[in-house]
């Protein structure tokens, strides 16, 4: 099976609609899949992380975290608001028509980005996930597994403060990251501390 690839991950915040995501996926007549993972913030609020996957699941495009999305039902010009988790399991075609699992057909689907309490970079996610893996704490922290998705789509941030006091020495984290991602420029120990502090682990 071809390796999976996230397309333009650094542009996630600039996208809003399913059409934005589809435009980055391979061309052709196909049916893609939408998945939504739940991430629980330290405040207790659950935010949905939306991603659109190509038909053969070799690539995906992420949208910003949201609790709601807006769309028009087929045959209607009225813009309605829906819970973002209704998108989970939906299909989308190359004309950007979305069909929810209950058969509802929608167009002009656009997420309403949630206000997150912090800015999390791709490097933050990498540090966090590698630290959790090193601690063998996946079962405690990941609660919503999604096919093909990155670990952040399944992370329950409210569980992370419970790991405080158990975090391995920074040199062990750096050694583990270097082994898992040898091509990655290693972060500084200060950066690791800043990331773990951001998630309440220090």
What features would you describe in this structure?
The longest helix is centred in the middle third of the chain and has 14 residues, at 122-135. This protein has helices at 18-22, 122-135, 138-141, 170-180, 189-198, and strands spanning 5-6, 31-40, 46-53, 59-62, 66-73, 79-83, 91-93, 98-99, 105-113. Helix 2 crosses helix 4. A hairpin with a 5-residue loop joins strand 3 and strand 4. It has 202 residues and is α+β, with helices and mostly antiparallel strands. The protein is elongated, with a radius of gyration of 18 Å. The protein is built from five helices and nine strands, in the order βαββββββββαααα. Strands 1-4-3-2-7-8-9-5-6 form a nine-stranded mixed β-sheet. The model is unreliable at 144-153 (pLDDT under 50). It folds into two domains: 5-113, no CATH class; 122-198, no CATH class.
């Amino acid at each position: 099976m071809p390796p999976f690839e996230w397309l333009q991950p650094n542009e996630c915040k600039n996208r809003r609609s399913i059409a934005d995501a589809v435009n980055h996926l391979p061309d052709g007549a196909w049916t893609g899949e939408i998945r939504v993972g739940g991430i629980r913030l330290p405040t207790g609020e659950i935010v949905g992380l939306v991603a659109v996957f190509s038909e053969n699941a070799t690539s995906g495009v992420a949208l910003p975290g949201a609790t709601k999305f807006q769309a028009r039902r087929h045959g209607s010009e009225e813009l309605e608001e829906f819970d973002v988790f209704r998108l989970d399991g939906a299909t989308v075609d190359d004309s950007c028509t979305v069909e929810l699992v209950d058969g509802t057909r929608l167009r002009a689907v656009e997420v309403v980005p949630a206000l997150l309490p912090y800015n999390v970079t791709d490097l933050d996610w990498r540090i966090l996930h590698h630290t959790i893996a090193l601690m063998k704490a996946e079962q405690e922290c990941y609660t919503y597994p999604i096919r093909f998705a990155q670990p952040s789509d399944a992370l329950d941030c409210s569980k992370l403060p419970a790991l405080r006091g158990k975090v391995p020495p920074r040199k062990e984290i750096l050694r583990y990251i270097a082994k898992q991602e040898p091509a990655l420029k290693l972060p500084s120990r200060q950066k690791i501390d800043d990331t773990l502090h951001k998630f309440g682990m220090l």
